[in-house]
Amino acid sequence: MGPIWPSYYGNCHSLLFMVDAANPTQLSASCVQLLGLLSAEGLAEASVLILFNKIDLPCYMTVEEMKSLIRLPDIIACAKQNISTAEISAHKGTGLAGVLHWLQDTHRTDS
Ligand SMILES: Nc1nc2c(ncn2[C@@H]2O[C@H](COP(=O)(O)OP(=O)(O)O)[C@@H](O)[C@H]2O)c(=O)[nH]1
Ligand SMILES: [Mg+2]
After folding, report:
1. What is the pLDDT of residue 2?
2. Which domains does the chain have, with CATH numbers?
3. Average confidence score pLDDT of the chain
4. What's the rounded Cα separation, in Å, for the pair 92 and 73?
5. In this structure, which residue's CA is closest to atom 21 in ligand 1?
6. Any residues with Cβ below 6 Å from ligand 1, and which?
7. pLDDT of residue 110
8. Angstrom distance (rounded) from CA 36 to CA 30
9. Phi, psi of 56, rounded to the nearest 5 degrees
10. Over the stretch 24-55, which tens digit does the pLDDT of each residue have?
11. Distances from the Cα of 51 to the Cαs of 48, 87, 90, 111, in angstroms?
């Protein structure tokens, strides 16, 4: 889907980027996609929430290890955007209330 994302950048105020936390083999590809989004001119003003999904599943790597592996603290420090992260399970509903709060807060400061 990555190649068609730019057609959605116009008027995009918030960006939710989901990482599959149960499958670290996809992590480097996710990181490349994320860096592409963060450097896109059309998304310079967007607020970004990076979701680590599927935390209900067992994994040989912790979310902290995954963040460290892609140097997420450095990415956040260098990005133009305001970036938050959350750990969720879309399956169990874990963390979803926090995502809704983030959306509310983001749109409150927008208007
Ligand atoms: N256990 C679990 N399964 C999930 C979660 N979110 C999505 N899924 C399941 O993951 C499957 C979709 O695969 P996914 O890797 O998310 O999508 P894709 O990579 O775009 O194919 C579906 O069967 C969903 O029900 C979650 O938080 N926990
Ligand atoms: Mg998948």
Report:
1. 79
2. 13-110 (3.40.50.300)
3. 95
4. 27
5. 20
6. 20, 53-54, 56-57, 89-91
7. 61
8. 10
9. -75, -15
10. 999 999 999 999 999 999 999 999 999 999 99
11. 10, 6, 10, 24
